[in-house]
Amino acid sequence: MSQNHKETLLKLQEPASVDVGSAADYIALMKPRVMSLVVFTALVGLVMAPGAMHPVMAVAAIALIAVGAGASAALNMWYDADIDAVMSRTKTRPVPSGRVTPDAALTFGLWVSGLSVLSMAVMINYLSAALLAFTIFFYAVIYTMFLKRRTAQNIVIGGAAGALPPVIGWAAAANSVSIEPLIYFAIIFFWTPPHFWALALIKNDDYQAANVPMLPVTSGVKSTLSQIVLYAFVLFGVSLLPYALGFSGLFYASGAALLGGLFIALCVGLALASDKNRNRLAGMTFAYSIFYLFLLFVLLPTDKVMGL
């Protein structure tokens, strides 16, 4: 931890030293809106796994994955309080706004992380608990503490944390990992860069002010746009692997091709947009990317039920 980072955390500690924060503040620490989509993919991984899981255990597994993801988000907010404080998108979060102290956020994140992993091990199985522990560690330590402030590939490498929930869901149900959840992992992994870089284009000034080496900051807008288009094409191919490998049918393949084609069109349109229209199209691309991933993962179990 840098000296500046320590000083910022100390300053943030002072204003709220007599206030432990409300329940709503601690829920906000867990980034429920950000984490909801990847937790949904965990549910799909669980549903797609072979065999039957008792509904109560299935609900418990998904809840624990959600709690673990939220705990890693709390640790992220604790460590990133200094840069969150200077970014318009994040300055109202619980720690930089002073509603929750850094120490309280750290304690909360550590305790909830430990409890979620331990509960997963006791209630579900050791494999899913180990994967959940690794996901929390990767997001909170590898991504937040090492990658985010050091390399423009932070989102590319760090995207592995957000891509693991369907693998955890599968492991919770099957107590094993096979090629199917690894393909789901790959879909989210290659989806993350164009999704997040579209937002980074809009918030480029914020990242520059916070000295975070996002791709638009380090390589410029033109290079970022080229990378967004490249990843959109790679994602299109990866999204068709479930059909190509024989564990999804034509219903999924048709839907994935349509959704992916629209995503490519948006990304190419963004790359060709004028400076005046770029932020508007970047916002549309970012919003559609969320819709895209959600529908893609809806198609998987729907296809399985339909058997087409």
Give your account of this protein's structure.
This protein is mainly alpha-helical and 308 residues long. 79% of the residues lie in helices and 0% in strands. It is flat and about 50 Å long. It starts with a helix and ends with a helix. 47% of the residues are buried. The model is unreliable at 14-18 (pLDDT under 50).
Number of helices: 15
What's the name of the CATH homologous superfamily of the largest domain? UbiA prenyltransferase
Q: Output the radius of gyration.
A: 20 Å
Give the tally of β-strands: 0
Number of domains: 2
Principal-axis shape: flat
CATH class of the largest domain, anyone? Answer: Mainly Alpha
Terminal residue distance? 53 Å
Largest sheet: none
Q: The CATH topology of the largest domain, please?
A: Tetracycline Repressor, domain 2
Give the DSSP E fraction (strand runs of 2 or more residues): under 5%
Order of helices and strands: HHHHHHHHHHHHHHH
Helix content: over 70%
Structural class: mainly alpha
